[in-house]
């Protein structure tokens, strides 16, 4: 099972998740071990769930059109939308409080 390391507010959370897990979906149904994940719509429209991928990004598919629209140049900085990612491999994510502007 993939291990997710999630960093937010100077805290680090680590847990195993089932393969093909979407972190925002899990958070929405209260089956998510990371209490500080910031998210809202879950559909790639608001970018509130934007996270910087610190490790494991090579296993993710390329950004989809929603991520390109919402994140713009921040994609080059390693940002992705958590709501658009289905986790199949170990990954390390960091979420900051900076607003995401395309």
TrEMBL record:
<dbReference type="InterPro" id="IPR012675">
    <property type="entry name" value="Beta-grasp_dom_sf"/>
</dbReference>
<dbReference type="InterPro" id="IPR036010">
    <property type="entry name" value="2Fe-2S_ferredoxin-like_sf"/>
</dbReference>
<protein>
    <recommendedName>
        <fullName>2Fe-2S ferredoxin-type domain-containing protein</fullName>
    </recommendedName>
</protein>
<dbReference type="InterPro" id="IPR001041">
    <property type="entry name" value="2Fe-2S_ferredoxin-type"/>
</dbReference>
<dbReference type="GO" id="GO:0051536">
    <property type="term" value="F:iron-sulfur cluster binding"/>
</dbReference>
<dbReference type="Pfam" id="PF00111">
    <property type="entry name" value="Fer2"/>
</dbReference>
<feature type="domain" description="2Fe-2S ferredoxin-type">
    <location>
        <begin position="2"/>
        <end position="102"/>
    </location>
</feature>
């Amino acid at each position: 099972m993939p291990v997710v390391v999630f960093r937010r507010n100077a805290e680090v959370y680590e847990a195993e998740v089932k393969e093909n897990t979407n972190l925002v979906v899990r958070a929405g149904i209260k089956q998510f071990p990371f209490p500080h994940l910031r998210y809202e719509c879950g559909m790639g429209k608001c970018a509130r769930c934007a996270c910087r991928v610190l490790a494991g990004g090579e296993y993710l598919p390329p950004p989809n059109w929603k991520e390109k629209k919402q994140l713009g140049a921040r994609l080059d900085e390693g940002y992705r939308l958590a709501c658009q990612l289905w986790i199949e491999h170990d990954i390390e994510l960091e979420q900051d409080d900076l607003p995401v502007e395309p």
